[in-house]
Amino acid sequence: MDPIHLLTKANSFSEQWSPRIVAQMNDCDVMVVRLEGEFVWHKHPETDDFFFVLEGELDIELRDRTVSLGVGDLFVVPQGVEHRPVARNGEAKLLLIEPRGTPNTGDEATAAKKIAI
Amino acid sequence: MDPIHLLTKANSFSEQWSPRIVAQMNDCDVMVVRLEGEFVWHKHPETDDFFFVLEGELDIELRDRTVSLGVGDLFVVPQGVEHRPVARNGEAKLLLIEPRGTPNTGDEATAAKKIAI
Fold it and tell me: Are residues A73 and B23, on separate chains, in Cβ contact within 8 Å?
């Protein structure tokens, strides 16, 4: 029941592309993640995918366009839409929200384990 | 399908205590709100209540303590817990997330109408 400073949480670990759970809201995991370079193309058939940039820049590539996010920008990738997050200009730190247990790659076999911090 | 800069959205209107919907994520409204002074004591029997401070400072008073939030701080009030948001030091601007249709006062009769912007 303490306030959670998201960048402090993101700075408390160094591993990239490995979301850390900082809170729960109803059936969702509230997470911070550090990203750099290219992720894999994927989609989430069962859920929208929430991104909010805390630090740095993130491109979210869609099949027909790229959405470029800076600090303070939010974007929700609709359920089922293929996307690829790419941090081209150094590291980006983000707030992510997904239903508990959603695999970050869209596939349980390749998903990062989400660790609570 | 454009990025949503939350502070730009919050600065696009002036009414306080009147959440504006900026996106949807699954069954939730993603909102920005401007707060100043004291809100009413209330609770949400059916949902957790998500607060993230974009600008300013916010106290979330609970019956047994006060949680003081600054910029970059997140707090989730658990379902059913009485709370009162208070912005004591000027205006605060926040990101809020709640299941669609959740009354901001916990009571349909007194709730603000949530407008999409």
Answer: no
The answer, as to whether pTM is greater than 0.80, is: yes
Average pLDDT for residues B78-102, to the nearest whole number? 96
Q: Which CATH architecture has domain A6-102?
A: Sandwich (2.60)
Q: What is the pLDDT of residue A7?
A: 98
What pLDDT shows up at residue B49? Answer: 96
- Topology at the third CATH level for domain B6-116: Jelly Rolls (2.60.120)
Question: Which chain A residue shows the shortest CA-CA distance from B80?
Answer: A26
The beta-carbon neighbor of A76 closest among B25, B54, B68 is B25
User: ipTM, 2 decimals?
Assistant: 0.94
A54 CB neighbours in chain B (<8 A) are 72
Residues contacting residue A112 through CB under 8 Å, at least 6 positions apart: A17, A18, A19, A104, A105
> Domain ranges in chain A?
6-102
